[in-house]
Amino acid sequence: MAKNEMLPGTLGMLVLRVLQPGPLHGYAIAQRIHQLSNDLLQVEEGSLYPALQRMLLKGWVRAEWGISETNRKVRVYRLTAAGRKQLQSEMSDFDRVMQGIAAVLAKA
Amino acid sequence: MGEFFRRIYYLLHRRQLEQELQNDMAVHREMMGQKNQKDFGNPLLLQERSHETWGWSWLDRLGQDVRYSLRMLRKNPGFTLVALLALGLGIGVNTALFSVVYGVLLKPLPYADGHQLVVLRQQFSKANEDNVGFSVKEIQDYRTQSHSIAQMEEYHQMGFILLDGKEPQEVRTGVVSAHFFEMLGIKPYRGRFFSDTDDKPGAEAVLVLSYPYWKQRYGGDPEIVGRHFRMNDKVHTVIGVLPPVPQYPRENEVYMPTVACPFRSSQMMIEDRDDHMMRLFGRLKTGETVDSGRRDMGLIASRLQQSYPGNYLPARGFTATADGLQDQLTKDIRPLLLVLLGTAGLVLLIACANVANLALARMMRREQELAVRAAMGASRGRLVRQLLTESTLLSLAGGAIGLWLASGCLGLLVTFAGRFTTRAAEVSISLPVLLFTLLISIATGLAFGSFPAFSQRLDLVSSLKESSNATTEKASRNRLRNVLAVGQVAISFMLLIGAGLMIRSFIRLQQVDAGYNGENVLSATIFLNFSKYSGGAPMSTNKTAVKNFFDRVAQKLEGTPGIEAVAVSSGAPLAPGRPSSQPFFIQGRPTGKNEARPVANVEVATPDSFRLLGVPLISGRFFTPQDSAEAPTVVIVSQGFARHYFPNEDPLGKRLSDDGKDWAQIVGVVGDVRQYGLEKDPVDTAYVPFAQSLFTMGTVMIKTAGDPLNYAKQLQQAVYSVDPEQPVNEMKTLDQLRGDTLAAARLTSLLLGLFAVLALAIAATGLSGVTALLVSQRTREIGIRLALGAQRSQVLRMVMMQGMRVILIGLAVGLGGALLGTRVMKALLFDTAVTDPLTFAGVALVLLAVALLASYIPARRVTRVEPMIALRAE
After folding, report:
1. How buried is B451 (Cβ within 10 angstroms: 0-12 exposed, 13-18 middle, 19+ buried)?
2. Quick check: A27 and B51 CB within 8 A?
């Protein structure tokens, strides 16, 4: 079960980040994160879909109709301007926290 | 902000979006491939968790609860029906009464800054005159000396004859100073209101019409402004129409400025400091309170007393005061409304306890169902919410029924309130009333719902094991049910006592001997067109013309077959109005300079007045036709008058005078008449012969054979044949007048009685229910007792005894409550003590009988218990 759990709160940022180059559907998002992390991170579907719904509500992503590789109609999620801004701020927040953690780990 | 709208969008398109999400997940699973699919987890749970982020799941759950509740309520039509009826009645009476309380007591006056308006009055406190008007001179004094009251405007009401080409009509006329409407903050609906130039001596006569009069008499004629009417022998021009706001202090057909009123503008009135004909209203300066206005008035009054000691004798205790207009307008009805609202609240409380009890009984049968639901994973909170949803739904439906009931009987209540206050017209089912109904509906639902909801135990194992007709039930719940039943008995006892006292007081009032016999007497009040019948100057009377008019009307009537007697007096007994208080002198008894003169009510009578009314002659004689205007003046006094002023001597032959110059001899003493209210003691009265009086009005009374209303036409025609321009005011029989004075008391008793019967009926069904449950719970035990040889009557007595305990405790609690609670009714009762033992004993007996019957009917079932069946029943 606990193969490669993500840090809590980082899923949203990762999803936004993988959507930056272009729109993806749900499965593709999970796959992309899995691949890019060199198979280190596994996105739980149970977290992915609620997270996507939340981002839709916040207006960070927009859903559009697209076609899956299996030739099925499916919704793809596209990053909006607000989403881009959100991604920026989440990334810089994350950087600062990482630096802090790294500093503590190095010096203690 | 965008998020908010997106949430709404998600709410509206929930079904479609759910499907899209489902599709997304389906594709996801497909692409994961066959072997990984089980990793996806429970797709349904996943979907639900995703929906939750939309923030609408509470709505879905509520929907579920509502659907489930509706199903449960439909499955128990008996329970639902009884509960709806009880709640509908309970909420209905509260809604109806609250609409009156809101419209009359709570709603701000429909005027700009209504709380700044005050009613001013003067008082001769030691002469028991606490609402004295103002004279022209006094109005000037108060206007110039007041610091806290920015504006003072005067008002008085007159009846004038208005001639507009149609049949002559007597119109109620409000005579006001120029800025009266401005003070109230009213804007004209048509035309304009009075200006200072309209209220200057010599100004052209102008009129403002009230909205209803303009609508009814002139069909809302848009050209009304500028029309001319003849009034008081002068041409009056209409300059404006009032908007449709309630009129204060009284309703009038037309308004005129003070200079147009022949009485108010007469020199005599203007100069006489003692002629307190006008009423005075004021608007406080901003920041000033009613209290400061009151102090201000008191100060000015004491200054007046110093300046004019002859007009304000210290013995009469002169003061002046101010009251808020709203308080003043509603002070007659306030205690009554509060008692009624309190009563309605108690009825709702009983309904609530009753439905709670029913619901508790039903819970026993639902225990298993709830246990199953809990076993399936429903949390305790969820179950409580489910039960509360059910009860709230029920009470909301009850509220809707109540609203329907309330709007149905609102008309009756408005008529009722109209007897006490002019604000009654403002009563309606308005938004605040609807909110009130919604609020008490929800509160009621939560209140009676929480009894079963929180008494449930979630002892799964035993609940599931227990069979449906469990013979043992938790004692605590039984106790709760008994407490609720005791409460119902206690409250119904209190309500019955309240109603009983009111009814007893009403019967006492009805039985009052008013001192006259009004059977088959018709009365009609006629205000003569004084300009026609005056002796030239406005304040004088052409005695001969007035006497001739009434003589000729009387002659016409006396010749009519079926009319047995005709008389003219100043007013029919118990007709609306107040006694006059005329100070007088008694010859040979000088009153000191600072001493108050004796005061009596003066009435006018013709020779036949006393005989017609059956007022007994105690000594001396009645008036005769010889007591004419030319003959020596005479007076007849009432028995109370004689006892009061001539306790140890014969009043006959003594002389009275109102001015100390013209003396009238007492020629007779007649019985006391309660002329101004059955609940009031007779006033000391002096009767003056019509022919010798200065009255320009008179009440014609005819005694008839058979129904007096059949002679209304003859009376009207007799008046028209003498003067075709003379209107006749409303004709009423003396029985109708007496009935009118009783109407308020009758309606109050009726309402309280209705509430009490309602409460009793609800409580009786409640008691029945308690006993019925008791019997069904103890069927097995009863079976054993019977099998062991107990007599059926013994068993019946045992069951009844248990019910009796509830009843007796309820009675005891109710007795305590009633002794405390009925004190607030003191002001409403006539000649009845709030602890009237007969009422208490009677009510206790009635309640006991009904309660015993209510528990006997279900208890009787024990006599039909078959021991064998009962023992096997499990």
Report:
1. buried
2. no
User: CB contacts < 8 Å between A and B, how many?
Assistant: 68
CB-based burial of residue A15 (10 Å sphere; 0-12 exposed, 13-18 middle, 19+ buried)? buried
Q: What is the pLDDT of residues B785-814, one digit of tens each?
A: 888 888 888 888 888 888 888 889 999 999
Q: What is the pLDDT of residue B461?
A: 60
- In a mutational test of the B interface, the residue from A31, A43, A53, A85 whose CB has the highest number of chain B CBs within 10 Å is A53
* Cα–Cα distances in angstroms (integers) from residue A57 to residues A44, A82, B18, B731, B753, in the given order: 20, 12, 14, 76, 60
pTM greater than 0.80 (yes/no): no
Task: Find the residue in B nearest to A75 (Cα).
Answer: B24
Contact B640, B684 (CB under 8 A): yes
When CB atoms are compared, the residue of B10, B23, B49 closest to A50 is B49
φ and ψ of B256, to 5 deg: -135, 155
- In order along its 108 residues, chain A shows pLDDT tens digits of 344 556 667 888 999 999 999 899 888 898 899 889 888 888 877 788 888 888 888 889 988 888 888 888 888 999 999 999 999 999 999 999 999 999 999 987
Nearest residue, CB atoms, B30 vs list A52, A59, A70: A70
HSE-CB of A91 using CA atoms within 13 angstroms: 12
- Model pLDDT, residue B468: 43
Minimal-distance CA residue of chain A relative to B40: A45
Q: What pLDDT does residue A1 have?
A: 36
SS3 content of chain B, % helix, strand, coil (to 5): 55, 15, 30
Interchain pair A74, B49: CB under 8 A: no
What stretches in chain B show pLDDT beneath 70? Answer: 1, 34-41, 456-476, 534-541, 593-594, 873-874
Radius of gyration of chain A (CA): 15
- Are the Cβ atoms of A49 and B49 closer than 8 angstroms? yes
Is B24 close to A30, i.e. CB distance below 8 A? Answer: no
Closest residue in chain B to residue A50, using alpha carbons only: B50
Chain B CB contacts of A68 under 8 Å are: 27, 31
Contact criterion met (CB < 8 Å) for A27 and B27: yes
Tokens of B316: 């009469």
Q: Which of A26, A59, A70 sits opposite B24 (nearest CB)?
A: A26
Chain A residues with CB under 8 Å of a chain B CB are 25-27, 30, 45-46, 49-50, 52-54, 56-59, 63, 68-70, 72-75
Q: Whole-angstrom Cα distance, residue B174 to residue B248?
A: 10
Residue B144, judged by CB atoms within 10 A of its CB (0-12, 13-18, 19+), counts as exposed
pLDDT of residue B653: 92
> How far is A33 from chain B, CA to nearest CA, in Å?
15
pLDDT at B829: 87
What is the rounded CA–CA span in Å between residue B229 and residue B227?
7
**What does the alpha-carbon distance between residue B612 and residue B602 come to, in Å, rounded to a whole number?**
19
Buried b (16+ CB within 10 A) or exposed e, B309-347: eebbbebbbbbbbbbbbbebbbeebbebbebbbbbbbbb
Query: Per the structure block, which two tokens stand in for B640?
Result: 């109370």
Length in residues, chain A: 108
Quote ipTM for the complex: 0.80
Q: Does the beta carbon of B27 lie under 8 angstroms from any beta carbon of chain A? A: yes
Chain centroid to Cα B277, Å, comes to 29
Using a CB-CB cut-off of 8 Å, the residues of chain A touching B47 are 49
For residue B788, count CB atoms less than 10 angstroms from its CB and return exposed for 0-12, middle for 13-18, buried for 19 or more: exposed
- Cα B776 from Cα B793, distance rounded (Å): 17
What are B50-84's pLDDT values in tens digits? Answer: 777 777 777 778 888 888 888 888 888 888 888 89
* Nearby residues of B545 by Cβ (< 8 Å), 6 or more positions away: B532, B533
Question: Measured between beta carbons, which residues in chain A are less than 8 angstroms from residue B32?
Answer: 27
